[in-house]
Amino acid sequence: MLNPKEQLFCYYFSCFQNLKEASIKAGYPALSAEKTAAKLMGREEIKQQICEYSKQKDMEYLQAMVLSGLERLAFGEINDIIQLMMKGNELDEKQLQNLNLYMVSEIKQKDGCLEVKLFDRYQALKLIQELIQLKQNHGTTEEFLQAFVEGTKQWGGDKDE
């Protein structure tokens, strides 16, 4: 079992990926920080704890990315989409690349007309609300991801096309 200083070392190393800095932040003497860190890294339980902290950080990042994407869908502007629909054939490649089409789920050209389908803003808002409530209720990362997967199924995100 790791003592509190060793736990802190593992946490700080997972954050900074720097042995000396993690050792000092954990409370070990600066003069022997590198030697202490090298000794700690030789222990299997230290490596395992660093892996656990790293996984947690990765999941926190994933959660933030999911919420960020949903916020873009729920609150994004449609100006560029309207510009595409009005001037689609007149836009050059550079102008097309600069359009923000994040909210677009599908584009079809039919009989000379452009058909654009958008993701459902209301559904994005509902998912945001569910994910925030889950987080407030101390939900685990697994519950967060499960809620996201269920939400995408309701949205039609599980279709094989």
From TrEMBL:
Pfam families: Terminase_2. InterPro entries: SPP1-like_terminase, Terminase_Gp1_N_sf, Terminase_ssu. It comes from the Bacteria. The keyword Glycoprotein does not apply. Keywords: Viral genome packaging, Viral release from host cell. The keyword DNA damage does not apply. PANTHER family: TERMINASE SMALL SUBUNIT, TERMINASE SMALL SUBUNIT-RELATED. This is Terminase small subunit.
